[in-house]
Amino acid sequence: MSAEATSPGARSRRRGRTSIDLRRLGRAALLGPASRDRLPDAIGHVADAHRAHHPDADLLVLGKAYVLAEMSHRGQFRKSGEPYITHPLAVTLILAELGAETTTLTASLLHDTVEDTDVTLDQVRAEFGDEVCYLVDGVTKLEKVDYGAAAEPETFRKMLVATGNDVRVMSIKLADRLHNMRTLGVMRPEKQARIAKVTHDVLIPLAERLGVQALKTELEDLVFAILQPEEYERTRTVIADRATTGPSLDTIAVEVRRTLREADITAEVVIRPRHFVSVHRARLKRGEMRGTDFGRLLVLVGEDADCYAVLGELHTCFTPVISEFKDFIAAPKYNLYQSLHTAVAGPDGAVVEVLIRTHQMHKVAEAGVVALGNPYAPVDGAEPADGERADPTRPGWLSRLLEWQEAATDPDTFWTTLRADLAQDREISVFLADGGMLGLPAGATCVDAAYAQHGDGAHGCIGARVNGRLATLSTVLVDGDTVQLLLAHGPVPETANDRGGDTTGGSGDSRDGARGGGRGTQTQDAAPGPSPEWLDHARTPAARIAIAGWLAANPESLKVPAAAPRAPGAVTAGRRGVANVVVDVPEATVRLAGCCTPVPPDAVTGFTVRGGAVTVHREECPAVARMTALGRSPVTVSWGDEPECRVTLYAESFGRPRLLADLTEAIATAGAAIVSANVEPPSEQRVRHTYTLQLPDAAGLPGLMRAMRDVPGVFDVRRAQHEPAS
Hints:
It is built from 27 helices and 22 strands. The protein is of the alpha+beta class.
């Protein structure tokens, strides 16, 4: 069945044999005479379509399955009035046209027997074997009597788990939904809309991910007609009034055939009309449609090398649109799809899209996993040594789905998360430092990579390296990145504190910095576990479910620790080694602001923040002006008697060897202790260092800053005045 037809009645072309119009045959099976003597004609069509792909197939088992299905469904009718047996026959015909092997067709004939008749799974197993029984069980719905409102999501969960062991389960389900969508007109409008919405959110993305474009595109058109009837009719009118401006696809196809013939390249050039949804999207993108916008040219060749030969000739004889070139042969899509995509412009400027692929690639592009036949058949008659079946159709997205669904025990959570997961229609591959590889959805972050690699062990993640450089946990990964996750319970590299980690700041909590997606590292005494901010960075369901589960099990992690009892009127900041601060709010927790890191004898002021704590700022800090403008009342603050203080300094320098060693030596000589350090990557030969330092006496700060400025290559040292750029 063609993956790109302009109308439900469009015919497909198949090399070397007469095409069968599935839609026409489906209608004939449903609307023809209801007498039983016509039904064998339908199984005859199935046999013809099956033999076209599998000439040596044994049809006896199909006849046996048809007899059982016809007898068990006898007396049952569809809502349209046709005998119910027409439905499994139509589903089987769809799969036969796609090239499904005999076991799949046998199960599709029987797919509703256990659900809707007195036939049991034990009977199916006894008559047809374990594989057919497994497939039939996989597509059998759960009873609403037993599951209530959870029946639909739990049925899909059961089906997806079964698909993880045998992908043919989902092939049958997709064909089943396609035939139901074709005959949906007899349902009430509200039920049509509900079924179409589930098809749009779940079944169409699954068809795309399994590469079954032939089913996906027709499902898209049928859903489009139900959910957006006005746009559908507008698109139908546009196709009926097809634009004639510029050369037609037929004219350009003739030119392409001539070009390839002169280059002595054997190729078949056909026109692929766009289906309704594709035309709709093109119209929204391009506005006025030209004749070449209603389809693409498909060039079919014999070998992979011929694909590139065709590409070279087209780019030589026509003007290529370089931005439209994509090589899915060298880098296949995650759904098995392979093809070269390009676009060329003719002499008059008309642009046409061209798809170049081999005949085998075309078969897989149309039928996806169905075209693989039986992916579980033993090689050379030998079973795998470990007893497990190797499944070449198990892509990364399916493995991830099967993992996170185990944690989503609530049906509503599973159903919502499944739709959100399937809405992410692109996938990337990232490499691990140990040589492994992770498949992640596009837009995934280091948080997602951590949970994909370590599972619940990622709760203790304190940072990551991306392509060798320390990065925030919120960093969005791109295809081909190399990522190394740093865990609290594992060895933290030496450079984590001197090359890329964030300063913990004068008062900011280092756990919040690192775990909230900042560039910080976790303090040694902080309990491992994610912060709520991680949910903002997680894109994969596995990460979100694991983080939410940990936060729900550890509600105390969301609370601000209470300050230790202190005498009224004189309280100290709740951090070890920070100078005493006296405020006018008795028993208040006091924090020194990380944006300006005040130290004695700075002029300071304070503001009450959420939770009743008082944050102390230097008076010239920009945050003071902002809070004053908001009408916040300042709190009187003064320094206590403790001379020790903590401060954050920025050092700007030119890059040179041993600069870091010389700076740290100057700091140590001045008697300061380095709490944390960060060296940003060089930019225009300039390097920025950030140090959080513990001084035994604030009076020594000016001398320390002078000593740092005296280090060769350092041209500026200053106190923190604002939040450092993340």
